[in-house]
Amino acid sequence: MKIFLHLFVLLFFTLPSFAQEVEAMIKEAERLEDIPNEKAALNKLKEALLVYPNHVYALSKASELCSRIGTREPIAANRDKWYDQSLLLAKKAIAISPKNDHALVSYAMILGKSSLTKSGKEKLKNAREIKRCVDGALQTNSNNYLAWHILGRWNYEISNISTLERAGAKLFYGGVPEGSLKNAIMYFEKTKTLMPLFILNYVELAKAYHKDGQKQKAISLLKTLQSFPINTEDDAQHKRDAQKMLKSWQ
Q1: Which residue among 49, 96, 230, 247 is the one 20 to 30 A from 88 at the CA level?
Q2: What's the gap between Cα 131 and its chain centre?
Q3: DSSP class of residue 72?
Q4: CATH at 45
């Protein structure tokens, strides 16, 4: 009985400090991400996961960072390693908390990025899964701006599928999910209200407006984002991409 009492007392006093240690690591990871230094942030999250392997937010954020870092990797084999790591982390987060919006968004994000190298059948399968994940994330948290952004990109990509490709997909894969350019614009605009300085969202919204024939709106967005601060390691490149689009549209 004394042994159990000692164990209870030990757990009672160590659990708060244990939780504080993990949360301090996560806070530091967020600070490093804001610098931005994504690899350092990822390493700090991995430290937190060594202490608390089932921390859903740490798993989800680590997955998100792996997918972002992988996107910048020029060598395909190395990129695939980052994507594989991202996928494993996201799947673990969902297994622990199936309705967690961070977990569902990180999974949808990596599915979208890894789909670029997949066959037509796998792309359509992933498209359906991405939609399921973002819908689930928004049911949990209607203010998750990344979920709205991914939903916008999903609709934009689906709207780009040609009539011929749709016919082939219907014949071989059971059809293409419903998506539209109007919805893409609406969801990108929703993202803009939730995260006004999200540079990539401005770029994608500009593309959608331009495709919809609203050229001046598109140009205005690309000019506006140039004054935004750099918040991620991709933002400088997004600004350069915006400059190239401006030159070709003006």
Answers
A1: 230
A2: 13
A3: T
A4: 1.25.40.10
